[in-house]
């Protein structure tokens, strides 16, 4: 179970990372100092506005939202990085995850995935997630 589960989680994170790539690029257009300020002062309503308005450019309304959590990683030795908690909900699939942003890279870490239907096999769950992610994305010229 361990190796198969880890493989499924890795596949899910790869799919999710590819889906939120444009969002990560959009969020990196915001001044890092502003993001750090909002996170350190727990100005989560401001972060919610920024994240949700950026998500509206790439995802159907309500499918990807700020999860009311964020962290700053800043040391004298390394460039700053941030982590923003997000929630994806679509077609009976809910994913709670963190989006980590650095100057020129991004990554995701899934905290939990919930399926409305009883858990199936891992292949079925992966297909459900893929369908939910694909359905949530806006195509060029499509309004949210």
In short:
The chain has 144 residues and is α+β, with helices and mostly antiparallel strands. It has helices spanning 2-19, 21-27, 32-40, 44-55, 122-136; strands at residues 64-73, 81-90, 93-101, 106-115. It has one domain (2-136).
What does the overall shape look like? globular
- In total, the number of strands is 4
The major β-sheet equals: 4 strands, antiparallel
Strand content: 25-35%
C-alpha termini separation? 40 Å
Based on the model shown, name its key terms.
144 residues, alpha+beta, 4-stranded antiparallel beta sheet, 5 helices, 4 strands, 42% helix
Write the topology of this structure.
Layout: H1 2-19, H2 21-27, H3 32-40, H4 44-55, E1 64-73, E2 81-90, E3 93-101, E4 106-115, H5 122-136
Antiparallel strand pairs: 1-2, 2-3, 3-4
Helix pairs in contact: 1-5
Describe it.
Helix content is 42%, strand content 27%. With 144 residues, the protein is an alpha+beta fold. It has one domain (2-136). A hairpin with a 4-residue loop joins strand 3 and strand 4. Helix 1 runs parallel beside helix 5.
């Amino acid at each position: 179970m361990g190796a198969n589960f880890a493989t499924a989680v890795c596949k899910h994170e790869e799919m999710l990372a590819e889906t939120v790539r444009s969002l990560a690029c959009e969020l990196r257009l915001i001044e890092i100092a502003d993001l750090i300020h909002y996170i350190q002062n727990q100005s989560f309503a401001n972060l919610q506005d920024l994240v949700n308005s950026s998500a509206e450019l790439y995802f159907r309304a309500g499918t990807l939202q700020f999860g009311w959590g964020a962290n700053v990683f800043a040391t004298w030795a390394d460039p700053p990085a941030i982590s923003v908690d997000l929630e994806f909900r679509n077609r009976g699939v809910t994913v709670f995850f963190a989006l980590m942003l650095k100057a020129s890279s991004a990554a995701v870490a899934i905290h939990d995935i919930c399926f409305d239907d009883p858990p199936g096999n891992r292949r079925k769950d992966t297909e459900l997630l893929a369908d939910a992610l694909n359905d949530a994305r806006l195509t060029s010229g499509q309004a949210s």
